[in-house]
């Protein structure tokens, strides 16, 4: 069994919760409160700034030029393609790129990005890939599901989001990460596999927490009224 097949079995209960989440369902049927989406866009922008650094670390840890080049392309794609979706939504909300960058991260954004950066900086290349894979894989799966909801892809507000995450490019990117992790674990011991599985499941759980955070617009308890 490929290592990714083992992970795919383990992630099922968490993915089921993602797909049923009111934030995700609301994007699919177009009923999501735009204020919740606005909050999410800001937090996701901050998230992606940190996430992109994982690709830079990946380029440093890569063992061959081809893999290094792919990480460099992913870094560029995140900053200049994926985040341009956020900047376009920002225009609709009246949020400038500078305002996005100056926003305060929520506790969940901080915890998720810091966890990934810790793994990326102190771990092996396989550990870094295990940390970043749930992000690409779970969004692709959600994008594919939402795309099939009638009207979702052409929705005048949420359609662009669905289009981006259900696109072939994002699918290929998730597949590249899956294949790289499988390649890096061919000779891994059971102890190494267990450590990788724990990292993978932790960031899978953080993906769910991110939807929860966005839906409830959760900031630090004492600051809640100031930050919304
Ligand atoms: C919390 C959160 N998780 C996953 C993604 C999706 N995503 C982030 S980077 C990437 C691949 C490279 O650009 C993908 C698919 C997101 N936007 N926000």
Describe this structure in words.
With 228 residues, this protein is mostly helical. It has one domain: Heme oxygenase-like (Heme Oxygenase, Chain A), CATH 1.20.910. Helices cover 80% and strands 0% of the residues. Helix 4 runs antiparallel to helix 5, helix 4 runs antiparallel to helix 11 and helix 7 packs antiparallel against helix 11. The chain is globular. The termini are far apart.
Features:
228 residues; mainly alpha; Heme Oxygenase, Chain A; binds ligand VIB
Helices, strands, pairings?
Blueprint: H1 3-10, H2 12-20, H3 22-29, H4 34-61, H5 65-93, H6 97-102, H7 107-122, H8 125-147, H9 159-165, H10 168-184, H11 190-216, H12 224-227
Helix pairs in contact: 2-11, 4-5, 4-7, 4-8, 4-11, 7-8, 7-11, 8-9, 8-10, 8-11
Bound molecules: ligand VIB.
* CATH structural fold name: Heme Oxygenase, Chain A
CATH architecture label: Up-down Bundle
Q: State the share of residues found in helices, binned by percent.
A: over 70%
CATH homology superfamily name:
Heme oxygenase-like
Number of helices: 12
Classify the secondary structure makeup into a structural class.
mainly alpha
The biggest beta sheet, please?
none
End-to-end Cα distance: 46 Å
Mean pLDDT across every amino acid position: 96
Task: Determine Rg (CA atoms, Å).
Answer: 17 Å
What's the CATH C level?
A: Mainly Alpha
The fraction of residues in strands falls at under 5%
Poorly predicted regions: none
The SSE string, one letter per element, is HHHHHHHHHHHH
Number of strands: 0
**Apparent shape:** globular
Ligand list: ligand VIB
Count of structural domains:
1
């Amino acid at each position: 069994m490929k290592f990714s097949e083992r992970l795919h079995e383990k992630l099922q209960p968490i993915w089921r919760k993602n797909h049923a989440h009111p934030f995700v369902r609301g994007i699919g049927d177009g009923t999501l409160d735009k204020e919740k989406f606005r909050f999410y866009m800001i937090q996701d922008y901050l998230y992606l700034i940190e996430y992109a650094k994982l690709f830079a670390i990946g380029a440093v840890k890569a063992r061959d030029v081809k893999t290094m080049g792919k990480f460099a392309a992913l870094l560029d794609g995140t900053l200049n393609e994926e985040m341009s979706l956020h900047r376009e939504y920002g225009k609709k909300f009246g949020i400038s790129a500078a305002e996005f960058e100056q926003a305060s991260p929520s506790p969940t954004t901080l915890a998720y990005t810091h966890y990934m950066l810790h793994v990326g900086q102190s771990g092996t290349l396989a550990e870094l890939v295990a940390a970043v894979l749930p992000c690409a894989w779970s969004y692709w799966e959600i994008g594919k599901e939402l795309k099939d909801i009638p009207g979702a892809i052409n929705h005048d507000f949420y359609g662009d989001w669905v289009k981006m995450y259900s696109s072939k490019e994002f699918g290929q990117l998730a597949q590249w990460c899956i294949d790289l992790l499988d390649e890096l674990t061919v000779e891994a011991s059971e102890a190494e596999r267990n450590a990788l599985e724990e990292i993978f499941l932790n960031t899978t759980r953080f993906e769910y927490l991110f939807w929860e955070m966005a839906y409830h617009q959760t900031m630090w308890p004492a600051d809640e009224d100031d930050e919304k």
